[in-house]
## 1
Amino acid sequence: MNDVMSVINLSDPEEHIKELTGSRALASLPILGRYRVIDFMLSNLTNSGVKNVSIYTYGKTRSLTQHLGSGKHWGLDRKRDGLYLFHPDRVFEDNMPRKGDLENFINHIDYLKYSSQKYVILSRSYMICNIDFRPIVEEHKKSGADLTVVYKSLENHVGRFMGCDTLKLDENQNVLNMGKSMGKERYYNISLEMYVMERTKLVELIEKSIQVGDSNFLKEAIFNRMEGMKVKGYPFKGYLSCVNSVDNYYNTHQDLLSVTNAKDLFNENGNIYTKVMDAPSTKYSETSCVNNSLIANGCIIEGTVENSILFRDVHIKRGAIIRNSIILPNVEVGDATSLNYSIIDKNVKITERKMLFGDASSLFVIKKNSVL
């Protein structure tokens, strides 16, 4: 994989998850007790041997930059290659400001032009999976394709991947066309929005799209030029979830209370790494009762927790009952308070004797830094 680099594009759609991304990028959204969304893609790349990883940001970046640091937690603090962050620049000489991520790519095109690797892996942050890119790159080289798209065949997942790209393929894995899931299909091929192509072809595609002016986003530029390209599909068999909505964020956590899904995600193709945060072990008092839940370090549990995920430094006080909920870091839940089908963001304080109920189809979300 010495001839492969990677680009993680963070222009992820957030319109259906904005309750949780008002103060942060989707890529830095806490997930599964101790991780951030971007940790999975970074770990996939480094486990696959990719040493040159670039992140093209879009929107709010403070928490993301703080989380990534120098990239040492993923082995990317290197003298050669390593981790690069590219933020959108405003070029004042350009009298036609463009919306979309393509402007960010053209403003930093020298990085792509002068990198030494021949191939590039393009991806987003919000596809949660554990994937090995090495066989995908090898298959791309053997096939002679201009573009290889990773996909997963799904059945009976109505509504879980609404808004994601879908592929129509022939018997030889050639991509005939691409569409968008409307959340109603029982069987379809969902794109992981992970692509492999030659670096020089990516540079040509970006420059051509800017010159013609027919695209604002990189994915749009790729779609507009697929007709003249040989595009192949590559099937992925492991666990997959797309965190592009509040419902999918919740369902991903519920999926991973299953030991089978958790083993698939965390152990299949290497470990998932994140920024190390030291914390003491969780304290369970004599009045605590915990069942089928994921509890991170640093918590104090004095009440009841069922079918829930608690992040670091959460305090559940005596008599409180937490069911089917997700509680992010530094949250205090008061005495005799009851939560069900709720998502509580960071630094929230809920006073005693409150009842906050949602349901599986309408989750109750409390925003960051709230006091109830």
## 2
Amino acid sequence: MGAVIDRLHGISVFLSVVETRNLSETARALGVSTSAVSAAIVRLEQKLSVRLLNRTTRRVNTTPEGVEFYQRCKKIVADLELAELSVGRSGRVPSGQLRIGMPSALARMWIVPRLPEFLEAYPSISLEIISGDFMAGAGAEGFDASLHVGEIPSSSLMVRKLATVRYVVCASSKYLSARGIPERPADLAHHDCLTYRRPRNGRIRQWKLKSGSTIEEIDIDGFMTFNSGETLVTAAAAGLGVIQVAEYYARPELDSGHLVEVLAGYKVDAYDISVVFQKEKRAAPRLRVFVDFLL
């Protein structure tokens, strides 16, 4: 590394000497002695095994080899300056590509519909969205970041909480008109309840409802079971029964009136939605602004 730095220094001195045609003037510009400038040129010539400059007491003339070397080095320096400008600009104006993983339902229902706002604010950023039922951590599959629902195992990743999701109990208005509205958790025993089987462990998820200051976990004997939150919502909207599901799954149907919330006074938090990404001292500006957008 030291040899490379010394060579770059010699090239810088050489370019200055060619442009000023004077060792003393170069020395003043660089804040060094004339002998130091001369020594740098000698080391460069020895490294290249060719004479670059013809030096006299008054003038410096470039040899044919020196002219060719000057032209090549000048182009290299121009490329370096362009690279510095490009990287410096990217530090101020976020640009480049991001590869983001996220659960399919979250992508379809909430994130993707809002991406036009992000791209309007940051047109120099391109996005690749990878959606699926379960997302690996940032760094896996080459993700710059990924969105997770639920608990995240301890790791070296950075975790930013985006939101806390609440469970909502709901059913279609057609079902409630026919079967009545449950007023308290005990009333669920008299209703057709649809249950959810966790794909990760195969277990039926218990319903969670607030009972005073405590959270009560209830085993539901459902007559139909699904392994997808979206399908569960579709089944309830079709009038098949009562469900408990994370609110973000049901919110569009609740807003449209296709589903009606019940037992609202017993509502509890379900889990957190978080974005995870690699821990770095300085995250790329494009990643920083995307995480801010998610927040």
